[in-house]
From TrEMBL:
<keyword id="KW-0067">ATP-binding</keyword>
<keyword id="KW-0418">Kinase</keyword>
<dbReference type="InterPro" id="IPR000719">
    <property type="entry name" value="Prot_kinase_dom"/>
</dbReference>
<keyword id="KW-0808">Transferase</keyword>
<feature type="region of interest" description="Disordered">
    <location>
        <begin position="560"/>
        <end position="579"/>
    </location>
</feature>
<feature type="domain" description="Protein kinase">
    <location>
        <begin position="200"/>
        <end position="557"/>
    </location>
</feature>
<dbReference type="GO" id="GO:0004674">
    <property type="term" value="F:protein serine/threonine kinase activity"/>
</dbReference>
<dbReference type="InterPro" id="IPR050660">
    <property type="entry name" value="NEK_Ser/Thr_kinase"/>
</dbReference>
<protein>
    <recommendedName>
        <fullName>non-specific serine/threonine protein kinase</fullName>
        <ecNumber>2.7.11.1</ecNumber>
    </recommendedName>
</protein>
<keyword id="KW-0723">Serine/threonine-protein kinase</keyword>
<dbReference type="InterPro" id="IPR011009">
    <property type="entry name" value="Kinase-like_dom_sf"/>
</dbReference>
<dbReference type="GO" id="GO:0005634">
    <property type="term" value="C:nucleus"/>
</dbReference>
<dbReference type="GO" id="GO:0005524">
    <property type="term" value="F:ATP binding"/>
</dbReference>
<dbReference type="Pfam" id="PF00069">
    <property type="entry name" value="Pkinase"/>
</dbReference>
<keyword id="KW-0547">Nucleotide-binding</keyword>
Length: 599
């Protein structure tokens, strides 16, 4: 739900607070309030922009004007000095001092009330006898729009009604029960542009987060047989993101543009370069409502987090300033340990996905075309001409899905591993080594220690492919130890000692997957653990890159017959409950109970 502001200063405060949050500046509430007050009264050219936006419904939050320093918080003294009464008193004191030192100046000619003030307005020349001149908002006829120049050019596409208004996402964000909102969302149409959607039915609500939600829709024919299915993801970015330059690429939201780039080089049929990346069927951008929808392939398996649900050992959260009870990690029975060959399989799948994002494609095992730009020799892993390397930036268990269906499914008893959710993915606007590079500030989202060290508050190191390497290493750490900690992987040490998070200064690869804390690690080879340690190195430059990882994975599989044979002819994974995730399969009748529940 959109907050309606009655005064322009409040609207400016919203923009500045979201700017501070998006850039993870770490200001206190008092610092935010002082900075809002100081800038609001110091920068006279800023106020008309927000005064003009107040009567607009739905309310537009203009972007922060350029040319003003928003990087440093103001203190109380600066805020007090900026207030109008204090500025007038200071101006009067200067005028009185000047009058005592020299003859009075001739009267100041006041501008006509209709004069447009284009230069920053100051109070230095206002005398006590001068009438107050109000700076009026720009003429609406001369300034009909406050759209950033990186938005799509008008005319925009027609838009459907928006009865929800984001209430579902707002309820999820605030922890309010949203069952009614979920049902209303699934009863709506997918809203594809210029498409007949009379045969599409929403059947399953999947998830909702801070800025988006997703559900499964299926399409049936006249006999009620399912002939198609897709996931519809609704995204409602914050006001700060919608107006933020870094959120856009080539006049498209960054997430949409990343999907379009990936699909532009996806070869037809089965392809090693794209089999591990979620497929996007299309999108719809609704500019007036500040939202968009993505239409994605449906993965009928769980994500890795759900697949391991009930098997993870969730350790206590690490709190450095609070006394903690030590814990013992429970050991799994040997027959319940995740096969090492399957971990190598997941490892290789995620590396292949990131190689495609970084290089614009990878060769098949036998070589061949990997992109429209031309062929590549077998084993060659180099940047394709014209491709802009993409960093995913949010590789977690929840964003890695499994799929058992279709000609591109996994190796028999094992699912296809699919990397999804490009909401934080980006490619650089300027080279990494440029002094004016927008990386990392434009892409920081203030994550915790379960994310790579580059996300830590105050970090100024740029996000690169090595950031995604750390994230993959964290997933492998979870699978090897059979543990999940909400503050990230832990360092090893003596048993009965609380292990500290890896993502802390001073951590290095020598104390990862060592010690007695995590007994399940003993079921896996030292070669696998060494590679995971290197991926989780605190220093990005000391982590391997993706071409090196792919080479070392291939070498290990080739040198170990048991691993290679299980990947080629995989054994069943008993704990993957496939039956509960095969509903709504194409070619089957639409379930009657689903029809009744919808009615």
């Amino acid at each position: 739900m959109t907050t309606i502001y009655k005064d322009a200063k409040g609207l400016f405060g919203l923009a500045l607070r979201e700017h501070v949050t998006a850039r993870n500046l770490g200001w206190s509430t008092a610092q935010k309030n002082w900075t809002i007050t100081a800038i609001w009264w110091e920068e006279d050219q800023l106020r008309p922009i927000y005064e003009h936006a107040i009567p607009i419904r739905p309310q537009i939050v203009p972007p922060l004007p350029a040319g003003i320093d928003y990087s440093r918080p103001a203190n109380k003294a600066r805020a007090d000095a900026a207030r109008p009464a204090q500025r007038i008193r200071a101006a009067n004191a200067r005028i009185a001092a000047a009058a005592a030192a020299q003859p009075p100046a001739p009267p100041l000619a006041l501008p006509a009330p209709s004069l447009t003030v284009t230069e920053p307005h100051t109070l230095d020349h206002i005398t006590p006898e001068s009438p107050v001149v109000r700076i009026q908002s720009p003429d609406p006829d001369l300034h009909p729009r406050l759209y950033p120049n990186y938005w799509p050019l008008e005319p925009w596409d027609s838009e459907p009604e928006d009865p929800d208004g984001g209430s579902l996402i707002e309820a999820k964000r605030t922890g309010v029960d949203a069952n009614e909102e979920e049902q209303a969302y699934m009863k709506s149409q997918p809203l594809q542009l210029n498409e007949d959607e009379s045969r599409w039915k929403g059947v399953e609500f999947i998830a909702a987060g801070a800025v988006g939600c997703a559900g499964l829709w299926v399409k049936t024919d006249e006999t009620d047989t399912i002939i198609d299915r897709m996931v519809v993801k609704e995204c409602r970015p914050t006001h700060a993101s919608w107006y933020f330059r870094g959120h856009w690429r080539e006049r498209r939201p960054r997430e949409i543009k990343i999907h379009e780039l990936v699909e532009s080089i996806r070869p037809p049929g089965i392809s090693r370069s794209h089999r591990n990346l979620i497929q996007c069927r299309g999108s719809r951008l609704m500019m007036r409502q500040a939202r968009y929808r993505l239409y994605l392939e449906h993965c009928n398996g769980r994500n890795l987090w759900r697949a391991m649900e009930g098997r993870w050992f969730e350790g206590p959260k690490f709190r450095p300033n609070r006394k903690r009870r030590p814990f013992d990690t429970p050991a799994l029975d040997a027959d319940k340990v995740l096969p090492e060959s399957f971990i190598w399989y997941i490892f290789g799948s995620l590396v292949d996905a990131c190689l495609t994002l970084q290089l614009g494609g990878i060769p098949d095992d036998e070589g061949g075309d990997i992109a429209e730009d031309g062929p590549a020799e077998a084993g060659e892993r180099t940047l394709q001409p014209g491709w802009k390397p993409i960093t995913h930036l949010d590789i977690t268990q929840s964003n890695v899905f499994t799929d058992w269906d279709g000609e591109e499914s996994g190796n028999g008893n094992w699912p296809r591993i699919i990397l999804s959710d490009f909401g934080n993915a980006f490619y650089n606007l300027r080279p990494d080594n440029a002094e004016d590079s927008e990386n990392p500030l434009d892409y920081s989202f203030g994550a915790t220690t379960r994310y790579p060290p580059e996300h830590l508050p105050g970090n100024l190191r740029r996000y690169t492919s090595k950031t995604d390497v750390w994230s993959i290493g964290a997933i492998l750490w979870n699978l090897i130890t059979n543990e999940y900690h909400h503050d990230g992987p832990r360092r090893g040490g003596p048993n009965n000692k609380v292990a500290k998070p890896i993502c802390r200064p001073g951590s290095n690869s020598t104390n990862i997957l060592t010690g007695e804390n995590f007994p399940n690690k003993e079921h896996y080879s030292e070669a696998l653990k060494i590679l995971v340690r290197e991926c989780l190195n605190f220093e990005p430059d000391e982590r391997p890159d993706f071409p090196e990882l792919r080479t070392r994975i291939d070498e290990h599989i080739a040198e170990n017959d048991d691993i290679r044979e299980q990947i080629e002819d995989p054994p069943p994974l008993e704990w993957f409950d496939r039956d509960n995730w095969g509903a709504f399969t194409t070619g089957e009748l639409f379930p009657n109970e689903s029809r009744k529940s919808r009615e």
